[in-house]
Write a structure and sequence with these properties.
Layout lengths: L2 H8 L13 H12 L10 E6 L2 H10 L5 H4 L3 E6 L1 H10 L2 H7 L9 H24 L14 H4 L3
Antiparallel strand pairs: 1-2
Helix pairs in contact: 2-7
The structure holds flavin mononucleotide.
C-alpha cells in the first residue's frame, strides 16, 4: 500500500487531543489541502471559519450538543455551504442584465445551489481530515452547527 492509502485507512475520529500546538505551517498545509478539493463547476460555494480562540471553542463544545472534546482541541474549522457567494457573484457580474440584453434565459441561484455548496464543503472537509492525519494531527467531525445556527451566527 502507498502512504496515501495507509493514511486513509489509519484515520479514525479522535476525541482526546494532546497539548501539542499545531504549527502555523501545518495549519497552512491543512487549509491549502482543503482548498484543493474539487468543487462543483469550480464555483467553490463554501467558506471556512478557523477557530483557535479557547473561549469560542468552549462555547462550541456546549452549543454543539455538549461535546467536551471540542473545547480541548487546538483548532476547529467550520465549513459553511456559502450560497451567498454565488448570489454576490451574479450581482457583481451583472449576470441578469447581460442575459436580459442578450435575450438569454435567466436562472437566479436556487435551492439546489445550496445543496451543491454543501457537497463542496463536505468534499473539502474530507481533504482536511486526511491532510491532518498525514501529519499526525487527529480530528473529529462535529455536526451540530446548523441545529443552533441562530446562536452560532451571533458569535
Ligand atoms: C457529518 C458527520 C458528523 C459527525 N458528527 C459528529 C459529532 O457531532 N460528534 C462526534 O463525536 N462524532 C461525529 N462524527 C464522527 C462519526 O461519529 C464517525 O466518523 C463514525 O462513528 C465512524 O468512526 P471513525 O471516524 O473513527 O471511522 C461525525 C461524522 C460525520 C461524517
Amino acid at each position: 500500500m502507498n502512504d496515501i492509502i495507509k493514511t486513509i485507512n489509519n484515520r479514525k475520529s479522535l476525541r482526546k487531543f494532546s497539548e501539542k500546538e499545531i504549527k502555523i505551517e501545518e495549519e497552512k498545509a491543512i487549509i491549502q489541502s482543503a482548498l484543493r478539493a474539487p468543487t462543483a463547476g469550480n464555483l467553490m460555494l463554501y467558506s471556512m471559519i478557523v477557530i483557535k480562540n479557547k473561549e469560542i471553542l468552549k462555547k462550541l463544545s456546549v452549543s454543539c450538543d455538549n461535546q467536551p472534546f471540542i473545547a480541548s482541541a487546538k483548532m476547529a474549522i467550520i465549513f459553511l455551504s456559502d450560497y451567498q457567494r454565488l448570489c454576490d457573484y451574479f450581482e457583481m457580474s451583472n449576470v441578469k442584465e447581460y442575459r436580459d440584453n442578450n435575450n438569454l434565459s435567466y436562472d437566479y441561484p436556487e435551492l439546489s445551489d445550496l445543496l451543491l455548496g454543501t457537497e463542496d464543503a463536505i468534499t473539502a472537509v474530507q481533504n482536511t481530515v486526511i491532510a491532518a492525519e498525514s501529519i499526525d494531527i487527529g480530528s473529529c467531525y462535529f455536526g451540530d452547527i446548523i441545529e443552533n445556527y441562530e446562536f452560532h451566527r451571533n458569535y
